[in-house]
Amino acid sequence: MAVLDDFDLFMENIYKYTNIDLTKYKRPQMQRRLTALRDKQGFKDFKSYFEALQKDQNLFHEFLDRMTINVSEFFRNPNRWEVVEKRLIPDVLKKQKKIKVWSAACSTGEEPYTLVMILNQFLPFHDIKVMASDIDEGAITRAKKGVYHQRSLQFVPPAYVNKYFKPLDNQQYAISDEVKKCVTFKRHNLLEEPFDNDFDLIVCRNVIIYFTEQAKDLLYTKFSNALKPGGVLFVGSTEQIFNPQSFRFTTYDTFFYQRV
Ligand SMILES: C[S@@+](CC[C@H](N)C(=O)[O-])C[C@H]1O[C@@H](n2cnc3c(N)ncnc32)[C@H](O)[C@@H]1O
Q1: Taking the model in full, what pTM does it have?
Q2: Does the CB atom of residue 134 touch ligand 1 within 6 A?
Q3: For the segment 184-211, what is each residue's pLDDT rounded down to a tens digit?
Q4: Is 114 in the pocket of ligand 1 (CB under 6 A)?
């Protein structure tokens, strides 16, 4: 049997403690990030770092923060969101009146709120429901609060800024309550928990890149099963699927995959 090193044991302990399986994330990046954090806190190995994490909530939350990477922004890669607005939603609404949407790994909420703003070009608020989930409870709390620095609004069309945001002090903006009410947030671990199904659109961007090839393949299969036939998976701009047919997908547009 292979001998487990200090980091292997740490991953095993974290899994038992949190149900987060670090072995499903690409190891070099994850180990580098967590080693830097551990060193910053003055622990000489992962064994003593794990012991401390269990006793100190601040350390534990800092660890969760570092392993999750919550960077996001509204309309991230704007020309891809044009595909959603100009092609995808009109295609769906030709066939039906409502659209079932999930923002998976939604971080601090910019992505599901982007979806609501776009959907509102076609539907009244009371017909818009977006499900949004992330593994990180802290990110979800911030998403529900809905307050953002101007920086994350750089790609929001000016007319939308006026319509859907309220300026606050210190270059902060609050998303409107009407937009907020359309989104249901929940904590959900993509790698461990079952998925809802019958989605018309699943947006899962800039998280799959962190997963091992094996974890990626499992996820694509789960996403494919969670979509309706004709439903679409929208991935990040570094996350092209090279063998879409293996997951019953055809390419709908660049970074969009349609369930056959
Ligand atoms: C870089 S953010 C992407 C946010 C947004 N989708 C975007 O593209 O702007 C990655 C998010 O993935 C979440 N995440 C990491 N592992 C996850 C898992 N196993 N299940 C669900 N979410 C996860 C992190 O908490 C983080 O909020």
Answers
A1: 0.93
A2: yes
A3: 999 999 999 999 999 999 999 999 999 9
A4: no
